[in-house]
TrEMBL record:
FAD-binding PCMH-type domain residues: 30-209
Entry superkingdom: Bacteria
InterPro entries linked to this entry: FAD-bd_PCMH (IPR016166), FAD-bd_PCMH-like_sf (IPR036318), FAD-bd_PCMH_sub2 (IPR016169), Oxid_FAD_bind_N (IPR006094)
UniProt-recorded name of the protein: FAD-binding PCMH-type domain-containing protein
Gene Ontology MF term list: FAD binding
């Protein structure tokens, strides 16, 4: 295999996993010792590698910066990790059309800095913004709570280019905001963990940078928070981020962020309206510095992605804190109120964390509790995905149509795909 890869890419583009030594110890369990990591300089050379894998019966998994490698559902069954980090070209920033087309190996934060020169940005807040590649964010559907206003990656994605399982480079979607032609294949690729194809290029919506940003927090007991939450939802206020936050101490709060005009901020109208709601709900109101989402969880943290019925979000975080305290685990969490989707960050003994996750899954009747970042030893004790839908057969059919020979069959996605 190595000699074949050297003939395709040259020796400098190939690294054996066994040669990594002690680097990235929290990720090593997800890197089969016999596998190779290849870094093709161009998408065309990446396609040639996949075409070779198709002929030789090798299994391939896309890899960006590796920040979310431990989000896989288990030990991947792969021969090659195809690293996309050399694909960093911004192909077309159509500022007037508010779109950007770029290769996916670019670091997310680096792309944001380039767009900011034109007064624009991608309205998303994935984890590991400093180091994660755009392709990794899309492949794992890594959204933060800005989705309350701007939607998820699937909503912002207009078109993609990707490597098919036979090594062909193909496109889906386009470069315009109103594109309705054809089957929406790009939305299948976003969040598929590389199980259907390898993204090489993507076109995204961009937005003007906000003129002004203001962030407020409301504190109080659970009953007061529930009252305030109902009042905020019934109001005409339009926060871009509207989160329920559980702090490690067990304190709950509402966190709201507004993107607006400087004149609105200067008038004080926004603060006055929030103050009226806070007073009526017996909550305390505090103006905060805009946080900016640069959350980089530590390697030892266990990360859950939770999906709750929105009206159960408050009760869910209360239950999570109670169970975490009972099992002597540390916990913090953030949930986007309107969608009921968020993340929980845990520390604790492996056996206690397993109990906590099982207990939370039992409590969540409608929704899911997906185990993202975690040691393999914990993922081996339970199903990481907690998939409760009825579309698994449809997913398998799609997998068969798009990857009949299993080139992208790492076995570490939902249902072993």
């Amino acid at each position: 295999m190595k000699q074949t890869l050297i003939a395709l890419l040259g020796e400098a583009a190939i690294t054996a996993v066994s040669d990594l030594g002690d680097r990235h110890p929290h990720l090593r369990g997800y890197l089969p010792e016999a596998a190779f990591i290849v870094t093709p300089p161009t998408p065309e050379q990446g396609a040639a590698v996949v075409a070779c894998a198709h002929r030789e019966g090798w299994r391939v998994l896309a890899l960006g910066a590796g920040t979310k490698l431990n989000w896989l559902g288990g030990h991947p069954k792969v021969d090659l990790f195809l690293r996309t980090t050399a694909w960093q070209q911004v192909i077309d920033h159509a500022a007037a059309d508010m779109t950007v087309t770029t290769q996916v190996g670019i670091r997310f934060q680096h792309l944001q800095h380039q767009l900011a020169r034109a007064g624009q940005w991608i309205a998303a807040d994935p984890l590991y913004q400093d180091t994660a590649t755009l392709g990794g964010c899309l492949a794992t559907q890594a959204n933060g709570t800005l989705r309350h206003r701007y939607g998820s990656w699937r909503d912002q994605c207009l078109g993609v280019q990707f490597i098919r399982s036979d090594g062909q480079l193909v496109k889906a979607g386009g470069r315009v905001v109103k594109n309705v032609a054809g089957y929406d294949l790009m939305k299948l690729l976003v969040g598929s963990y590389g199980s259907l194809g390898i993204l090489t290029e993507v076109t995204l919506r961009v937005y003007p940078l906000p003129d002004a940003v203001q962030r407020w927090q409301l504190h109080g007991d659970p009953a007061a928070l529930a009252t305030g939450l109902d009042a905020l939802l019934a109001s005409s206020l339009t926060p871009v981020r509207f989160d329920l936050v559980l702090e490690p101490s067990g304190r709950l709060l509402l966190d709201l962020e507004f993107h607006t005009l400087r004149e609105v901020i200067a008038s004080g109208t926004l603060g006055d309206r929030l103050a009226d709601i806070a007073t009526a709900s017996q909550l305390s109101l505090h103006l905060q510095e805009p946080a900016g989402i640069l959350l980089n969880p530590t390697p030892e943290q266990v990360i859950l992605k939770v999906g709750l019925c929105p009206r159960d979000a408050l009760k869910g975080l209360i239950y999570l804190h109670q169970e975490a305290s009972r099992l002597h685990c540390e916990c913090r969490a953030t949930v986007a109120i309107a969608q009921g989707i968020g993340y929980a960050y845990l520390h604790g003994d492996t056996a206690a964390l397993e109990q906590l996750i099982r207990s939370l899954r039992q409590w969540v009747q409608r929704g899911y509790v997906t185990l993202l970042a975690a040691p393999l030893s914990l993922k081996q004790q339970l199903d990481p995905w907690d998939y409760r839908g009825n579309a698994l057969e449809l997913m398998r059919t799609l997998k068969q149509q798009l990857d009949a020979t299993g080139v992208f069959g790492a076995g570490a996605f939902v249902g072993g795909l």
